[in-house]
Amino acid sequence: MNYYLISGEASGDLHGAHLIKALRKIDPNAHFRAWGGDLMEKEGATIVKHYSELAFMGFWEVISHLPTIIKNIKTCKKDILAFSPDLIIYIDYPGFNLRIAKWAKEIGFKNHYYISPQVWAWKENRVNKMKSILDALYVILPFEKAFFEKKHNFKVHYVGHPLMDHIPNHPLDIKFHDKFNLESEKPIIALLPGSRLQEIKKMLPLFIQVANHFPKHQFVIAGAPGLSIDDYTNIIKNTKLKVIHNATYDLLQHSSAALVTSGTATLETALFDVPQLVCYRSSALSYWIAKKIVKLNYISLVNLILNRLVVKELIQDELNLSNLCMHLESILEPLNKKQFLDDYQELKSILGNGGASKKTAQLIYDRITSEKN
């Protein structure tokens, strides 16, 4: 069968790649075409457009890039028609994907959505639209099933979180320090400043200032897929900070703490048992709009899933050098490390034992083959 996948961020590329791998095991004659990245391409998908060209962060940033977004929508529709897939699989990225899905439904394509838009946080009115245009929705957070089914009478499939498929089994690289020429006697603080260049330009300069206040630690930057070393060296300049690409999980396994820009990375950091501070800053206008319409008590997935403050969130004006240094000192203390481990263990028990990619692939394949028959 022909599968068309659309994602717009690094996390979507990761989850899409695992889904492609699982689908290929069930359907060895499958063909994949995708909007994604290097990981999907590695699994055999033909990439139409790389997510690094698609990810715009914040309300004002999206508005300022509207001509590009409209052009991308037209390109996507034309490409879908040319490929004529048996179904389209959307991965998060709702602003773009829901527009394509509405059009695709009218044309007669089958729409399956993997990793739901966060309509429980804002734009809850999108649920009715989703019900009318989607053939199936696969959710990955435990509270999402109740949200859709009990509150909105929308039958969904809860498949568990795809990170649980591979993080618990990630092998330990005992040669990590030597491989990247790191100091073995200095504890590592991991810096995860985001997956978009826009985010990194906002976050990394502040993280560099923090590093100057902790001379007994070494600060190592997790390079985002899709970005080059030059994107980072233009910011870090002559500092001693190192950038490591394609080894974020290895970095987290060897880190004593982490400064993490909000997103999937907060959950990944927790699943590796690393104490963390969640950091977020956007333009003043984007933040003002978000405060008006977002209905969440927290921004970190860790806090949202556990429904309490487990990891400290430093947002907008609270994200400053003084606060970062103070809270980083705190989470490095052994007693606080133990509390993190206890909370993270509870998080893992809620997320389950994995298998999301395999479950979703089987549900998709069974549904599409039954409809063909």
- How would you classify the helix and strand content by structural class? alpha/beta
Q: Extract low-pLDDT stretches.
A: none
> What fold name goes in the CATH topology slot of the largest domain?
Rossmann fold
Query: Beta-sheet strand percentage?
Result: 15-25%
Order of helices and strands: EHEHEHHEHEHEHEHEHEHEHEHEHHEHHH
Identify the CATH class of the largest domain. Answer: Alpha Beta
Quote the distance from N terminus to C terminus.
13 Å
Task: Specify the helix fraction band.
Answer: 40-55%
> Could you give the count of β-strands?
13
Number of domains: 2
Task: Based on Cα principal axes, name the global outline.
Answer: globular
CATH architecture of the largest domain: 3-Layer(aba) Sandwich
The total of helices stands at 17
What would CATH call the homologous superfamily of the largest domain? Answer: Glycogen Phosphorylase B
What's the arrangement of strands in the largest beta sheet? Answer: 3-2-1-4-5-6-7
Rg over CA atoms? 21 Å
